[in-house]
Amino acid sequence: MTESRARIAILGASGYTGAELVRLLVRHPRVEIVALTADRKAGQSMADVFPQFAPLSLPVLTTIDEVDWTKVDLAFCALPHGTTQQVIKKVFEAAPHIRMVDLSADFRLRDPGAYEEWYGHPHQALELQQEAVYGIVELYRADIRKARLVANPGCYTTTAILPVVPLIEAGAIEPDHIVIDAKSGVTGAGRAAKENLLYTEVTDGMHAYGVGGHRHMAELDQEYSRSAGRSIVPSFTPHLIPMSRGIYATIYVKTGPGIGAEGVHRVLADFYKAEPFVHVLPLGQVPQSRFVKGSNMTFLGVVADRQPDRVIIISTLDNLVKGASGQAVQNMNLLLGFPETLGLEQVAMFP
Questions:
Q1: CA 225 → CA 105, 229, 246, distances in Å?
Q2: Is 312:252 a contact under the CB 8 Å cutoff?
């Protein structure tokens, strides 16, 4: 007997995360893509926007208003920040049965005051914000399974939360001494045409941005503080580097007495020993971003600093996969009762 397929809609399919969702889902054995939206490109085929999909039979791009929600089981929302709140609110009003994975930042922050502070306006769907579950599977698996709305985390935050939260919860590090130096590929800035993302503006160099005030800090504050049981404010600086995809974070932590690098490594190796998408390298080994390119993996490396109470952690993932669309599919698998790894088993592309 053929297993039934879940009917999937992707809102915002013309962006990088939307295209990555299509790439992952077209070979997923338990789903069928029934709707793809892209308001400015409505009426075009997916192959018109992303030629790599030319051999595939996919729905024509439409506006969101044209979607028949009675024929959708789960939707991915890959729309810009600030626009998603009203869209999802309307979808749930029309079809309360639908389950939603939102890839924007609109539902990631639990505190409405924090959202207004970081995004400059009051939240427009407070009742939905309160029910949304933060979608890092390795930390919130049980809650995600029962959710209707999952807030897919940011790429920088996933990279920095996965290695640090288990250490805070284990009391292995001092939470007030966390420094995160992170680099992102250019796809992290989206597909819209921007002068500062032109080839000549990005190649042959790197630069920091959002220094002292990047919005992903709010997610780090939220998750670190939750783990510590008190307010934690880490230092975080993002950088843009000339590669298409990937996040590479160097994280500096101060350990508790007698813990050191071996203790930090032991905590992480034990915490993630059964996780399919987080791999802790042997103590002293350092991952490269190319180790995870195109995959849903996160690689973690732990190295002793020269000071005995200081440890350096390297965390790397593909910002479009585990940092966005791959993690969203991982969340979808949980929401729909599928094996968590289904459709995400691909190994990294190297070279």
A1: 19, 6, 26
A2: yes
Domain ranges across the chain = 6-131, 156-319
> Does the active-site annotation cover 155?
yes
Tokens 């094996």 correspond to 339
Return the CATH architecture of domain 156-319. Answer: 2-Layer Sandwich (3.30)
Task: Tell me: pLDDT of 90 over 80.
Answer: yes
Q: Kindly report, residue by residue over 247-298, the tens digit of the pLDDT.
A: 999 999 999 899 999 999 999 999 999 999 999 999 999 999 999 999 999 9
Write out pLDDT tens, residues 297-338: 999 999 999 999 999 999 999 999 999 999 999 999 999 999
Please answer whether residues 286 and 301 qualify as being in contact, where contact means their C-beta atoms are separated by less than 8 angstroms: yes
* CATH architecture for the domain at 6-131: 3-Layer(aba) Sandwich (3.40)
The DSSP secondary-structure symbol of 130 reads H
For 219, residues 6+ apart whose C-beta sits below 8 A from its C-beta are 105, 108, 109, 153, 154, 157, 161
The residue from 6, 75, 88, 155 that is catalytic is 155
